[in-house]
Amino acid sequence: MSQNESGISEVTVEVPMNIALVKYWGKRDEKLILPLNDSISLTVDKLTARTTIRMIQGVGKHTVEINDEKVELSSNKRYQTVFDEALRLQRKRKEDSNGNENRSVSHHFEVISTTNFPVAAGLASSAAGFAAIALAIQQLLNLDDIQANRLARIGSGSACRSMSGGLVHWKKGEKDDGSDCVAVKTKDDNWTDLYCVILVFNDGRKKVGSSEGMRWTRETSTLLKHRIEKVVPERIDLIKKAYATRNFEDLARVIMADSNQFHAVCLDTVPPIRYLNESSWQLIETVEKFNQPEIKAAYTFDAGPNACVIVQKKDVSKFINALIRDIQINTDDLETLPEEFRSIEYQKDDRTENNFVCSKLVVSSMGSGPEICTPSKNLELI
Amino acid sequence: MSQNESGISEVTVEVPMNIALVKYWGKRDEKLILPLNDSISLTVDKLTARTTIRMIQGVGKHTVEINDEKVELSSNKRYQTVFDEALRLQRKRKEDSNGNENRSVSHHFEVISTTNFPVAAGLASSAAGFAAIALAIQQLLNLDDIQANRLARIGSGSACRSMSGGLVHWKKGEKDDGSDCVAVKTKDDNWTDLYCVILVFNDGRKKVGSSEGMRWTRETSTLLKHRIEKVVPERIDLIKKAYATRNFEDLARVIMADSNQFHAVCLDTVPPIRYLNESSWQLIETVEKFNQPEIKAAYTFDAGPNACVIVQKKDVSKFINALIRDIQINTDDLETLPEEFRSIEYQKDDRTENNFVCSKLVVSSMGSGPEICTPSKNLELI
């Protein structure tokens, strides 16, 4: 067995976050992170985690650094779970090729990750982060896609949806071991006309974490089961069909209905869970108005007050013009919009001065896949 | 046929509003006001409509006056519906006794109603108002309880639940003509220990009216049907059982879960309907805290932000003490509490100064029935 001089393999990847169009809420297996229902998502090209992983030979502690801050791994068990699984897969692979396992060679990981968005903004950056770790480890260890998908998932459930571009369908699977629980790109070409406008609304309230929230809902909601069994499968089909036929109105209708239903089952929980705040509701109202007489925008909210509004490229500027009449947007954010949307003159007079404040606005195309920035050093040589 | 000298019959009644413990939301027949699901309620003794009806012989226009303001009947069709039905029943009764109908004697109604609570506070005063009209007409025309119940219901659906005291079960019925759709007092003795604390939270938003909201939910929610078919029947049974066995914790659990589920199906509507505001959510949080480690209070919200918190008599003062730490309550309201709750010294220091403002607080016992204040002049003489 050979290896490079220092016994270090390194790879860098860049992975986008994703936003669910039909929401994941509830686990059928807490340990393996197997969901109770299918979900379907698109990536947000501009919001990414850029992650470098080094796999270092020898005894040592794993380290993870995100945006220049060290992560305390003892209180973030998910990283340990991912590293353990990665090293198990590595040993298994060697065992398969050598016929016996060489446990004497130990390794540890060093992860350095940068998100181009504040983690505290609550934009599901952990999904992009764990997808990046999984993708990097896939390169380092030559894993197949299903193994990599699983690695992402046990880090953060919805991370597996960031492992490819296009419309991604995360199938809940039926098997107890989770082997058929995998996120796959649907066959269709990317619908490159889809853009999203993301609005960060700060919120003083203490948020119910999604793992905890899902558990409460699964244990107490009398509506969740019906949603999972009857509503979600139909909606997954509707989304696929609307995406394949480029039917924006149909797509938008399902996106909004499913966001609302996700928040409805949160409210149908004991104790009730609320993620939407007054600004979120103002945004809903703004979109409702904008959608008269024709549906041109679809809002969706994850487990927090921030909004993601999906529009077609041709409607981005129009939508931002509608936004600024109802919600306070930073001048800076408007001035740093992508070139093609910046030419529009957002009239100062049109801008609102009410209490709904968007602390950060981002406009992004959707559907790009992750990127491997450096080729992996061939682990076969280790 | 005889009548009193002036040809006028008059009766005065006083009828309490009621609050649903399992909510009514959705009609199976819009015209007859037949609900999609059973509901169950308690009356609020202190919030009443006191109504005098005169039935005047001769051609003339019906008039309705509420709290000294004339109601424009052309834009409030429900009154006309009720009066038409009342006069139809009167003619039918005469026809039955005389063998032929005497259409030549016409009548009209004069209604004068006073609620001891501002109508604008959004406390379902129309339910008490229509129940009062129905009860008064029952006295005037010697109607049976089922006829009176129907009269109340076609005025305002949930009004039929104010026609008697105790725990009242409004059965949706199965028949198309609504003949088995009736609100009945459950057999149990009144649980006189139940009190409610009502908090009025003003709200700048334009509210979606309940008739319109129900229609939207019925037409667009994919959760409502499951609620109606599976969840509500179980909850009606649970409420009856908890009430019969005086099990407050069980009663409270169902009350809160059903309020939340009602608002969840509102959110699962296209477009989504929201009635709870920030103050409502603060109240939910206050109750959650108060219920540690033992459930002693149950919140419930109708189609608006105002809260009704049900507690046992022994816990009223304790609950108000918890309230004033989180929500601004008028000093006046505290000073005019019923004698038995007034002795508690609400410490000035304990009182909050945040933004959650309760504009009116009312404490009331529950479960009283309506009262007939004057005996009806015997219509048999007309």
Gist of the model:
Chains A, B: It catalyses: (R)-5-diphosphomevalonate + ATP = isopentenyl diphosphate + ADP + phosphate + CO2. Two copies of one chain form a homodimer. Chain A is an alpha+beta fold and 382 residues long.
Task: Describe the protein's architecture and organization.
Chains A, B: Residues 16-183 form the Diphosphomevalonate decarboxylase-like N-terminal domain. Chains A, B: Pathway: Steroid biosynthesis; cholesterol biosynthesis. Chains A, B: Its EC number is 4.1.1.33. Chains A, B: Residues 196-373 form the Mvd1 C-terminal domain. Chains A, B: Keywords: ATP-binding, Cholesterol biosynthesis, Cholesterol metabolism, Lipid biosynthesis, Lipid metabolism, Lyase, Nucleotide-binding, Steroid biosynthesis, Steroid metabolism, Sterol biosynthesis, Sterol metabolism. 2 copies of one chain form a homodimer. Chain A is of the alpha+beta class. Chain A has 2 domains: 8-188, Ribosomal Protein S5, domain 2; 194-365, GHMP kinase, C-terminal domain (Alpha-Beta Plaits, 2-Layer Sandwich). In chain A, 35% of the residues lie in helices and 24% in strands. The first copy, chain A, contains 10 helices and 16 strands. In chain A, strands 1, 4, 5, 6, 7, 8, 9 and 16 form an 8-stranded mixed beta sheet that branches. In chain A, strands 11-12-10-15 form a 4-stranded antiparallel beta sheet. In chain A, strands 2-3 form a two-stranded antiparallel sheet. The longest helix of chain A has 22 residues, at 77-98. The termini of chain A are close together. Residues 376-382 of chain A have low confidence and may be disordered. At the A-B interface, helix 5, helix 6 and helix 7 of A face helix 5, helix 6 and helix 7 of B.
